[in-house]
From TrEMBL, chain B:
Gene3D superfamilies: Glu-tRNAGln amidotransferase C subunit, N-terminal domain (1.10.20.60). It catalyses: L-aspartyl-tRNA(Asn) + L-glutamine + ATP + H2O = L-asparaginyl-tRNA(Asn) + L-glutamate + ADP + phosphate + 2 H(+); L-glutamyl-tRNA(Gln) + L-glutamine + ATP + H2O = L-glutaminyl-tRNA(Gln) + L-glutamate + ADP + phosphate + H(+). GO terms for biological process: glutaminyl-tRNAGln biosynthesis via transamidation; regulation of translational fidelity; translation. The gene is gatC. It comes from Nocardioides mangrovicus. This is Aspartyl/glutamyl-tRNA(Asn/Gln) amidotransferase subunit C. The keyword Nucleotide-binding applies. Allows the formation of correctly charged Asn-tRNA(Asn) or Gln-tRNA(Gln) through the transamidation of misacylated Asp-tRNA(Asn) or Glu-tRNA(Gln) in organisms which lack either or both of asparaginyl-tRNA or glutaminyl-tRNA synthetases. The reaction takes place in the presence of glutamine and ATP through an activated phospho-Asp-tRNA(Asn) or phospho-Glu-tRNA(Gln).
Amino acid sequence: MSDQVLSFEDALERYDPTFGLEVHVELNTETKMFCGCQNAFGAEPNTQTCPTCLGLPGSMPVVNRTAVESAMRIGLALNCQIADWCRFARKNYFYPDMPKNFQTSQYDEPIAFDGYLDVEVASPDGGSETVRVEIERAHMEEDTGKSLHVGTSGRIHGADYSLVDYNRAGIPLIEIVTKPVAGTRASAPAVARAYVEQLRELILALGVSEARMDQGNIRADVNLSLAPAGSGELGTRTETKNVNSFRSIERAARYEIGRQAAVLEEGEKVFQETRHWHEDTGVTTSGRAKSDADDYRYFPEPDLVPLAPSREWVNELRTTLPEPPRERRARLQAEWGFSDLEMRDTVGAGALVLVEQTVAAGAPAQAARKWWLGELARRANETETELSALPITPADVARVQALVDARTINDKLARQVLDGVLAGEGDPDEVVAARGLAVVSDDGALSAAVDEAIAANPDVADKIREGKLNAAGALIGAVMKSMKGQADAARVRELILEKLG
Amino acid sequence: MPQITRDEVRHLADLARIDLDDAELDRLAPQLEGILDAIASISAVAAEDVPATSHPVPLSNVYREDVVAASLAPEEALSGAPQVEQQRFEVPRILGDEQ
């Protein structure tokens, strides 16, 4: 069953969208939130568990100091107040991936609250504008285990049974909740995306999470509602769960605007519910209604004592904050010598951190930009993945550029090197060696190829002898062709001119 | 004074995944009401300057350093599982939302 969807333009003509985002950030602490089990991605199932994170009777949690510190640093970086006293709370519900039958979270006493993030988005006139996204709260909680659904469907629906791995259960999570963001009109999906992108940038700068969306380190829920245009009202919202790429955040928001508009146009009411985002088809489908199941019966966690972070501690953490995102972008733009347009495209492509890391690995800024926004952006687009999820590191890209600069390879071969790295054939040097991609600058081989080219093109050779140096291009082309693109073009040109000059 | 209805008891039973029949609901609703009445009598003597107590001992700021401790071996972790497959806990079919 598919829903009716109004076109985005028609929907916006009649309705104002308001959105809010809940972003879960998995911290990169050494250990879990309440026990000493290792926090690492990709271990064998159920090798990182203990009585506490398995919820066995008699076990007692103790909170991870570093996780609390990371939570406060995130809060401070988002311009939040830090609670001078707060407690954990039990959120009670039954689900097999949560062995205690409650999630240890925070309820009405979050560690951080009342902040904001100024988000830069491209404006329709080609410039950029700043939208202040207000932060309601950032609170601490724990992740759940991972379920594998066994059955013919491979999905939860129609599964025969499920298999649970509790390695992820208890990994520290910070949930960051925005206030409703209204008045962004047609930019709403782009602002939602830019908020998560720039939040991720901040998280990376803080160094508190690996922040890889493809590994689920950052997960977003998108709340969205529509109200009649100009009414200033707030409509009934839906919550689309686990939208796990920047691109999907924008798409899911757009889709919900169109879907809800179609519902309202029919004179129906938007149903307050959880919806699921389907990456493959680009639609959301109905999950469960907000109902009794949301009766979580929160109460203060008796096994964890209250937190009362001293103001000295908070102030000390304040001194460890990275520079604010806007100042950071201004500094990077100046350092890299990017035009406003180049900078906007870099930010827009989610490539700011990648370019920064590539430059840090030794590449010139313009070269870093060229690879990420050109060749690699094209490949990310083709495979519908995020740039940062491509299986190539900034160090690899810097190495490819270094090989070009050293004239070991040329731009054309560099693309083949990227192909090899993306195909998992190893780092750039390994790909060059395995595929035999290095250009030939050995004079013996080149000289022979040049002699052949001259012999095969006597007219061209005569022109060059007469001083028409532009004609050399034809001979270089012939040499490149005979050497399958692997000749050092600059050296070939020198040899031609030496022989005919 | 608290008034707890049969419907509320049914709702609580649903949340707790306890299957109660009509006779049990009739019997338990007044009992729960009695418990709530008893608790309410404490509120009657606690003046406004007495904060609600969540923790009996006035202790705060107990932290654990972020240092890895030994985990259970997977065989130990799984030893209480009724069914194991692929080194994972096998659980009955899950109905409802994927979290």
